[in-house]
Structure of Nicotinate phosphoribosyltransferase:
Amino acid sequence: MKITKDLYQGSLALLTDFYQLTMAYAYWKSGKAEQEAVFNLFFRKHPFQGGFTIAAGLDYVVDYCKNFKFSQEDLSYLATMKGKDGKVLFETGFLEYLKNMKFSCDIDAVEEGTVVFPNTPLVRVKGPLIQCQLLETPLLNIINFQSLIATKAARINLAAQGEPVLEFGLRRAQGIDGGLAASRAAYIGGCTSTSNVMAGKLFGIPVSGTHAHSWIMSFETEMEAFEAYADAFPDQSIFLVDTYDTVNGIKNAIKVGNALRSNGKEMVGIRIDSGDLAYFSNVAREMLDEAGFPDAKIVASNDLDENIITSLKGQEASINVWGVGTKLVTAFDQPALGGVYKLSAIRDEEGRWIPKIKLSQQSLKINIPGVHTVKRFFSKGKAVADMIYLESQELNPQAALIIDPNDPTRRKRMMPAFYQEEILLKPIFAKGKLIYTLPTIAQIRDRVQDQLGSIDKTHKRLVNPHLYPIGLEENLHQLRMELVLKAKQVDNGNDAEQ
Ligand SMILES: Nc1ncnc2c1ncn2[C@@H]1O[C@H](COP(=O)(O)OP(=O)(O)OP(=O)(O)O)[C@@H](O)[C@H]1O
Ligand SMILES: O=P(O)(O)OC[C@H]1O[C@H](OP(=O)(O)OP(=O)(O)O)[C@H](O)[C@@H]1O
Ligand SMILES: O=C(O)c1cccnc1
């Protein structure tokens, strides 16, 4: 495998779970491939025990769907697959069907950078059952990871209280695309720049960095190393001061800073990468101020995350720039967002939508049936609640009642006259045609900040946040309850017969 040349071979159609393909074959074989269905992508719990999630990855989803096509190489590979009996697994008629398959779904999705809450659809796919099914794994792969990292980045940036956060994660990221997607999502979530040069090139993210201990160690003395760096980058020098002795390193940085100044240049600052970051940043601040460098930045790095940054802020550390790698790009304390993709309705032969329910021992896991969408209510510009409702439902214009899907005793009456509303699911594809203008990455990043500004600060608290109200419109709640009870009766009946 030559990763530089052979990795994707121009097609991602096989980047899926095997069972999607066996189901696709069986849908085709049983004549159900073209039956219309609706699937929803949602998650059940915020990551990091937080109070909000940032939706990210839609740009990748759009690209994936636009290019949703099995290549000749993909089909040739599928043709070699054998069943337990040693016979070919997929008939040639099916491979021919895949070859001619054209993406034709409707996709509605929340825009990238939107603040989202549990159980509300982030992406809704409506179209031929076989296509909806085949999209499950790639859509989850894309949205789960980028939303997770964008959320982590937003938390880290909230902790940094507006100070720049530089993303340094590539070396510890989850592989090659993990690293690229993480840099993209980290920037969306609020980071100022990435150290990942390829992400800079591919996504138009600002790239920045300092230098490593190896630079210092390659010289006889730290002083020589600083001087040589200043010579190479007289306008962009940030000196890493902790290779040998941090206080001495700060003294050397000041000396080189003075030399730069005598040439009409200014050092940008220093970086501290070990030891007590509160203590050394305060020592550095005092020394830099005394030496006449009050504007020199103090960059800190070393296994930082939102909790350590919050602690350092509490200790009044004099850090103005935060370099964050491993714990950001790996979402260290929660390495996956548990997004799921569930069938919620299927069209019968008469063209009626039949809502579908999946029972679970855990009521938390019972899905929301029907062709539904989600509306956000705002009061004085602040988001106050999200309502999931059946798209075909006539809503009571006076007052809509929303009911928590996990606890029906939690209810809230929305008086639309007093609120502004926004339907969060936006049309992205109609019958396979892209009808949405993709925003730039900078617009998505700005959107995250606007969105975070639209929710109450109690939901943004990093620890024990206040729960944002989301609920099912009462008719949808009713439908769900009826379907659950009906499905349970069927189950009981079956049990009784056994
Ligand atoms: N004042 C502080 N308050 C809270 N956490 C801190 C403080 N100073 C440093 N830390 C964090 O404590 C951890 C220290 O880790 P570690 O013991 O590996 O660092 P170190 O030994 O100083 O440096 P290294 O081993 O990387 O050279 C890091 O996660 C760092 O961000
Ligand atoms: O700590 P992170 O948040 O991942 O940030 C990136 C780290 O990468 C570099 O360290 P390096 O790879 O040289 O290893 P180190 O941890 O031993 O310093 C840098 O000096 C940071 O400490
Ligand atoms: O530019 C830096 O300082 C940097 C880049 C990657 C990892 N650690 C630090």
About this structure: Residues 23 and 133 are 8 Å apart (CA to CA). The pocket of adenosine-5'-triphosphate (ligand 1) is lined by residues 274-278, 302-304, 308, 311-312, 315 (CB under 6 Å).
